[in-house]
Amino acid sequence: MNSTTYLENKLPLLLGVLFVIGLIAPFAVYPTFLMKILCYALFACAFNLLLGFAGLLSFGHAAFLGTAGYVCGMMVRDVGVTPEVGILAGTVAAGLLGWLFGSLAIKRTGIYFAMITLALAQMVFFLAIQIKETGGEDGLQGVPRGHLFGLLDLSDNIAMYYLVFAIFCFGFFVIYRTIHSPFGQILKAIRENEPRAISLGYDVAKFKLIAFIISAALAGMAGATKTLVFQLASLSDVHWHASGEVVLMTLLGGLGTILGPIVGAATIVALQTQLADSVGSWVTVIMGGIFVLCVLSFRRGIVGELQALIKRSGVN
Amino acid sequence: MEIFGISTALLGSQLLVGLINGSFYAILSLGLAIIFGLLNIINFCHGAQYMMGAFVAWIALTRFGINYWVALIAAPLIVGIVGVLIERLMLRRLYKLDHLYGLLLTFGLALIFEGIFRDQFGISGESYEVPELLSGGVNLGFMFLPIYRGWVIIASLTVCFGTWYMIERTKLGAYLRAGTENSAMVQALGINVPLLITFTYGYGVALAAFAGVLAAPIFQVNPLMGSNLIIVVFAVVVIGGMGSIMGSILTGLGLGLIEGLTRVFYPEASSVVVFVIMVIVLLLRPAGLFGKS
Q1: Secondary structure letter of residue A235 according to DSSP
Q2: DSSP symbol at B97
């Protein structure tokens, strides 16, 4: 059976081209905008690892994005560590939270799994409002970007961009390796037919939990990096709307494709930035509309549709 | 009078608040359970439909002078009809797919509804006068009971148990239950299952809107009033297990009371206590209190 598609065969080439584009992009486009896209792209890729490859719809990924943001912000601003230590701390915190949430949520599957992750994330949201250290409604403000390894000044946007780009590439590489490993194959087997995976002797719960932890940690890495870029950790990052947004990005880009989440994140961030001034609260309506459209008639997403198009035209 | 150093008036009034919240949880999780039972869809826009019920009542009163009692019937009908349209035009296309798509579609719809109402009415919230017949209160001796709050509890419990009766004891309910068990068989017996599904969704949505009208005089009528409530209701559903109609009613009421008690003894935890209970229940009984494993 030839299940690999044209885009997947050409993936190394495509990734190479994207890498070069990523390297020269800050000289053509406003770096802060690019950094926002990269943070959300990593967030979406991490989410896609779980939904697209393990078939687990987490509706609480904002908890990892937001918690890591708070932890990184506090470490850098209040404890005074260097930025890379802050990001590491945020990532580890999100991973631990992922372990905690994951071990609870995998007790149920399907929509129950989604509802449990959502409810757990809402608990984090309430805590973030109530605890004094997180700044409540105001969030953590004035987080310094600091000096990388105590040497390189990150207040320069270009320097910051390359750090974010490096973090993104690292995260993407981890996901790529995970998917293209025996572990990733087992995840796919679980997604396709869980009873069969169990009968083959795999400890399905363990595999799901590990996937959940990797996904949570990488989502946290995105959140910690985002906090440094914008020098702010805010309540909106732990709100369930952020969890919904990442679902939308992944769905729009193409569920279960490697490049889909990146395309989806770039599209949504660009749309939001473009629309924010002109349409006000209609942004939510437009996002909702895209959601409905994707679910009803566009389920493969942009990259998925492209793959199908190329396959139909017979190039292989 | 005091119990554990807490005055009975305080305890009583917090239990009352808990019972009112519990009534809302019960009616909303009941609606979710009915929809889930036949459509296998988690209706993520349930909160938005609750909010729309409150807004329809508020608009009817302030723009057209239509009173509370008319709104109590009309708002659920109007929002229910919107629900019927959603089912006919959109949800119907998803039944053959993974259940997750239903959740995602209704999530998108929730965003649309919330966005439109936020654009039209802002987020500051509007107040809705308590209808004259139900204003004032009675002194029960140990506490003061506002009549409207008593009415909310009675009205929602009546609707909940009426729904339970309809599903468990009538012929229509028998069709519904048979439809959830084996819809192809029921269809073969000459019962119009697609119509039954449409009716069920409309009814579930109408329940949410009815709760919204009841809530309007108590809480601020606000475009976001449903969005945080719905997540607590999801937790209620996970705890109860959505196994039975009665289960969702009892779980809703019970959790409202527990929340009220927490507000008396340890107020800081009151907004997370439902989620803490959810975690405990998941550890001990993953299928929920009333769920079948």
Answers
A1: G
A2: S
The answer for residues whose C-beta is within 8 angstroms of residue A19's C-beta and 6 or more apart is A169
A287 touches chain B (CB under 8 A): yes
Segment A275-287, tens digit of pLDDT:
877 777 788 899 8
What pLDDT does residue A2 have? Answer: 41
In sequence order, the β-bridge partners of residue A152 are A148
Beta strands per DSSP E along chain B: 2-3, 6-7, 137-139, 144-146
Is B286 part of the contact surface with chain A (CB cutoff 8 Å)? yes
CB-based contact A115 B99, cutoff 8 Å: no
> What are the tokens at B220?
């601020």
- DSSP-derived letter for residue B126 is B
The ipTM, to two decimals, is 0.86
Look at B275 and A114 and tell me if their CB atoms are within 8 Å: no
Could you tell me the pTM of the whole model?
Answer: 0.88
Helix, strand, coil in percent for chain B, rounding step 5: 75, 5, 20
* Strand partners for B243: none
Q: Select the residue of B100, B276, B283 nearest A57 (Cβ to Cβ).
A: B100
How distant is the Cα of B231 from the closest Cα of chain A, in angstroms? 6
Question: For A257, which DSSP code?
Answer: -
